[in-house]
Amino acid sequence: MHQVTTPFLASLEGSELPTDVDPYFSLPTQTWVITQHLEESALLMNQKEVERHGSVSTMAKLLCYRKVDITQKLAFMRVYRQIPTIGTEYSKPEIRGLQAMPKLKSMACNVTPALLGYKKAQQDNDDPIPGGFSIYIVWDKVPGESLSDKYFWSLSRDARDGIRREFRRVNEQFLPWGIEPTSPTTTNLIYDQVSGSM
Questions:
Q1: How far is CA 75 from CA 34, 58, 83, 119, 193, in A?
Q2: pLDDT, tens digit, for every residue of 182-198?
């Protein structure tokens, strides 16, 4: 099992992706225009590792806006897409399609950015895993920037301690939801230097 930054989803730049109506989250059907592929990470596994850990997928963070919004206010979209097990990348669609396994548990939490759109879809025959999952999540772009290790360690000790206190405060509100980040890195934290909040 190894992590790679191969851009499986870079071709989404410039495309339009619809998200579905979701009564639970009070979300209407919307179309999003993808403006930029920001980052992507895939966890590649062979068949033995898949049997132990589950399906292989890639996760991308994209910048987008609502198609009907003339101001083009930016939002983030996270896409999770199932990709082939190592050694099956060039197999016929019907062979790759045997790897299809839909899974997602959605929850809401008040210390996360507002959820703007959501869609769970099945991949077509031309996609990496015919019948495999594709999940699109769009959320509000909140004030602040991703908290990189380089930025964090460039700050004074007092500033780093302030960020740690803010993280503890937010984390205490986040944990009761039973959500565990699958890629727990500082870049997933948005820190607003002006307000001192995450």
A1: 10, 20, 25, 15, 20
A2: 566 777 788 888 888 87
User: Rounded CA gap, 117 and 111, in Å?
Assistant: 17
Token digits for 152? 């964090």
Cβ pair 138, 19 in contact under 8 A: yes
- In angstroms, the CA 141 to CA 74 distance is 6
Q: What sign has the CA pseudo-torsion 168, 76, 109, 57?
A: negative
Q: What is the DSSP string of 23-34?
A: TTTTB--EEEEE
Tell me the CA distances in angstroms from 142 to 16, 26, 49, 73, 181, one per residue in order.
Answer: 22, 20, 37, 11, 19
| DSSP letter for each residue of 48-92 | HHHHHH---EEEEEEEEEETT-TT--EEEEEEEEE-PPTT-TTS-
pTM, 2 dp: 0.59
CB 122, CB 133: distance < 8 Å: yes
Eight-class DSSP state of 161: H
Whether the pLDDT of residue 69 is over 90: the answer is yes
Record the tokens describing residue 151, joined without a space: 């930025």
CA distance 46 to 175: 32
Q: How far apart are CA 117 and CA 138, in angstroms?
A: 5
Domain parsing of the chain, residue ranges: 15-140, 145-191
